[in-house]
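Hi, does anyone understand the following?
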Amino acid sequence: MTSPTKAEGSGSTVALDPELEVTSEVAKGAKKLEGRSPGQLMWQRFKRDRTGMFCAGVVIFFFAIALLAPVLTAISGTNPYTLYGQDPTYADKPVLDEFGLPLGYFGGVSADHWFGVEPQYGRDLFAMMMYGMRTSLYMAVGVATLLTITGVIIGVVGGYFGGRVDFWLGRVTDFFLSFPSQLFFIAFMPVVTAFFVDPREETPTYFRALAILIVLWVLGWMGMARLVRSVVLALREREFIEAAKVSGASPARIIRKEILPNIVTPVLVQYTYQLPSTILTIAFLSFAGVGFVEPTPDWGRLFAAGAQYTQQDPAFIFFPGVALVIFILCFNLLGDSVRDAFDPKSGR
């Protein structure tokens, strides 16, 4: 039994128990050593990556612009559909010369048209870019999400159950991988559109968006499926999976509680690479003339128009080109930072 000690106060003494002091110190130490979840550790590592944080800010900025496109164009006083070079309403503010080229410097940049105007028609490039980014980013998010969900389902089922299930799913994956994607994107788009819409009628914009989504979805899920399958094949042989099976857990519970939480890292990293790739594919379809068409604003359509105006007005392609390069570069660097945050051993 330890004897109490005395602490001197203002003219009085208070008995203190050394055991109580030790217990309080242990409690304080336990609070300091409180464990952190893998997500918290990942976030701490990611915050220390200046490149990753900067790229994340740029990507968020682009998505904010896409979301606020109507607000930004309202502030600029323009819209992507008005032909400022041909509409008599704006005859007192000419933007094109007699040859159909923008008046002023660098493609007609002015206080009214911040990024200049389009040759021949006089449409505002800033408004076309804002709405074009909105179209491309929204479509890319939808397509990449569908590809990820489909790939995860097929990869998990094939990798976990194996046997005949894995064999036939593997053959289906190989079949779709045998298609040359770029050529089939171009070939399938008119077929899908003509199957539902009379060729003599104009195809609605919403249906073109749906057709693009279906074509990219059907021909794009295989990479994610193969990645997930390879990860699940390695996981199903681990001790904790065997323990779950011995305890009588159902396959559905094992997949939900044991498999899915352990494939979040590769799936998330692959998603960050898939989204910018999807944006480029959508832009390619519009550039090739089988994606979005007039008058729907789209990043690919801006490049297709810029290819026609290169000699007369090379400045037209400057702003869309710089924006696309910055976005794709930052998103790819963001994917690298996310990968390194989840797996420090893969550091650059």
In short: The first strand starts at residue 5 and ends at 8. The longest helix spans residues 125-161.
